[in-house]
From TrEMBL:
One GO location term (cellular component): plasma membrane
Protein family per UniProt: Belongs to the ExbD/TolR family.
Main location: membrane
The protein, known as: Biopolymer transporter ExbD
Keywords assigned by UniProt, alphabetized: Cell membrane, Membrane, Protein transport, Transmembrane, Transmembrane helix, Transport
InterPro entries referenced in this protein's UniProt entry, alphabetically: ExbD (IPR003400)
GO biological process: protein transport
Topology class, membrane: Single-pass membrane protein; Single-pass type II membrane protein
Protein's organism: Paludibacterium paludis
Length: 139
């Protein structure tokens, strides 16, 4: 006994309108919250110093930085990467010199980190006057 003889079974429908609305909201949210960063390259040509060499100052502390990161403070070798011992060596070298100038003589192939470590140690030692040694270009 089939009492539903005249009824046709309805096929289920998928309504895409709400799905499109949700995806549009998600798209707008992602566009607003995404941060765009610009990557740019700079071609840097380092200047050559052609000035007259300055006279050696009695209040000068020379810090040499080798290509492999080894550091010498006033001729005394220091362990590479040890900022604490470098700070204490700079304090010792600056005793009695109220306005000592730290001259950083870094190799051209030395890493920036080793030079920044020397600058940080000088700041920790209370030495604020820094200068970099350069070579005059060969003509």
């Amino acid at each position: 006994m089939n009492f539903r003889r005249g009824r046709v079974r309805d096929e289920p429908e998928i309504n895409f309108i709400p799905l499109i609305d949700v995806l549009l909201v998600i798209l707008i949210f992602l566009m607003v919250t995404t941060s765009y960063s610009r990557f740019s390259e700079l071609e840097v040509n380092l200047p050559a110093a052609a000035g007259k060499a300055s006279e050696a100052r009695p209040r000068e502390i020379i810090v040499e930085v080798a290509r492999d990161g080894r550091v010498k403070v006033a001729g005394a070798a220091m362990p590479a990467g040890d900022t604490g011992s470098l700070t204490s060596a700079l304090k010792t070298a600056a005793q009695g010199k109220s306005d000592a100038v730290v001259t950083i003589d870094a190799d051209a192939g030395a890493t920036h980190q080793s030079v920044v470590s020397v600058m940080e140690a000088a700041r920790n030692a209370g030495l604020s006057q820094l200068t970099f040694a350069t070579r005059t270009p060969q003509q």
